[in-house]
Design goal:
alpha/beta; 37% helix; elongated; 2 domains; Type Iii Antifreeze Protein Isoform Hplc 12; single chain; TIM Barrel
Length: 341
């Protein structure tokens, strides 16, 4: 079975607390995801101290006086030591550890940690040196494309390939960068447009409030699903409100795995083994509606269609009407070919 890679995006929903981060790993492992993902950055390298928060961040945090991205991000940094602790803990819980690095130094650190792929966030899609650096690492790449046009995606792919990345090792995620994303802004068919344009594996990074859209994305061919999750949507922080709670994450994973099974058929339209058990019960046969007598010519008025379907098929009605019967038949009897002359 072609298994979808499911990435549970813890992001910064640990609020800088190692205990919360471990609890997020617990939830991800329990849900059965493939990866639990965090974020690796130094606030001073990621953002200028004068940069303002996004409108969704101001709204989700609910603190209009704390308008600086730097102040917000500084509170949710993970130290190198915390990364090592979380990697070890994830291994113990049998879920793969992953993190998004936001600069070249963070990418090198994650490489040294031994992560098996690199995830490029939407905001870094136009970061030339960063893309080239990741392209040089020789690992699989997942590229998020929120806020991007096809031309910008093409340019990013070009830089990754300049760095040494192979197109077959890149999965492109369709994404809408708003938290939460309104359903009318999802534009899920754009994922298929990306696939047609670049002939790569595709996926979807979801920021809607529910679980329907990522499940639908898998039905459309997504090979990777990324979804934010939290312990509690009411916790303070920029991303909690657009994240799944533990029960919902588990339901999403279950839904995706069920869709995978449903898509795993051979594609031929034919009865399955389970259907064959029900075929006779569900279909109908020709039955005698009114008594007929030996030598009588059968007319439509003599006949009716009833279950079970183990007799003469109603599709053979044209072959039956006008034929004589060679025995008396009572009302309610199932017609058999041996009854006909």
């Amino acid at each position: 079975m072609n298994k979808t890679i499911i990435i549970a995006e813890a992001g910064v929903n640990h609020n800088g607390d190692i205990t919360l981060a471990k609890q997020l790993i617990d939830v991800a492992a329990e849900a059965g995801v493939d990866y639990v993902k965090f974020q690796t950055f130094k606030a001073e390298k990621l953002v200028s101290k004068s940069a303002k928060q996004a409108e969704y961040q101001k709204k989700n945090i609910g603190n209009i006086n704390e308008a600086s991205q730097y102040t917000m991000l500084k509170k949710v940094e993970l130290s190198e030591e915390m990364h090592e602790v979380l990697l070890k803990y994830a291994n113990q819980k049998k879920v793969k550890f992953l993190s998004t690095g936001f600069d070249e130094e963070s990418i090198d650190f994650l490489e040294n940690l031994g992560i098996d792929l690199f995830k490029i966030p939407s905001g870094e899609l136009t970061n030339y040196l960063y893309l080239k650096h990741i392209g040089s690492k020789g690992k699989p790449i997942i590229l998020s494309t929120g806020m991007a046009s096809l031309g910008e995606i093409e340019a990013a792919l070009s830089v990754l390939r300049i760095g040494g990345a192979k197109l077959e090792d890149i999965t492109i995620l369709h994404c809408n960068t708003d938290y939460p994303t309104k359903y009318e802004d999802v534009n899920l068919n754009a994922m298929l447009t990306i696939q047609q344009a670049f002939k790569t594996n595709i996926g979807y990074s979801d920021h809607t409030l529910g679980i329907e859209v990522p499940i639908a994305a898998v039905a459309l061919g997504a090979k990777v699903i990324e979804k934010h999750f939290t312990l509690d949507r009411n916790l303070p922080g920029p991303d909690h409100k657009a994240s799944l709670e533990p029960k919902e994450l588990k339901e999403m994973v279950s839904g995706i795995r069920n869709i995978e099974k449903a898509l795993n058929g051979h594609g031929r339209k034919e009865p399955t083994k389970s259907e064959l058990l029900n075929k006779e019960v569900a279909r109908k046969s020709i039955h005698i509606k009114q008594p007929v007598f030996s030598g009588q010519v059968l007319e439509a008025s003599n006949l009716e269609m009833k279950r079970p379907g183990d007799g003469v098929s109603p599709m053979d009605l044209p072959k039956v009407i006008g034929r004589k019967v060679d025995t008396d038949l009572e009302a309610g009897m199932k017609l058999e070919w041996k009854h006909l002359q």
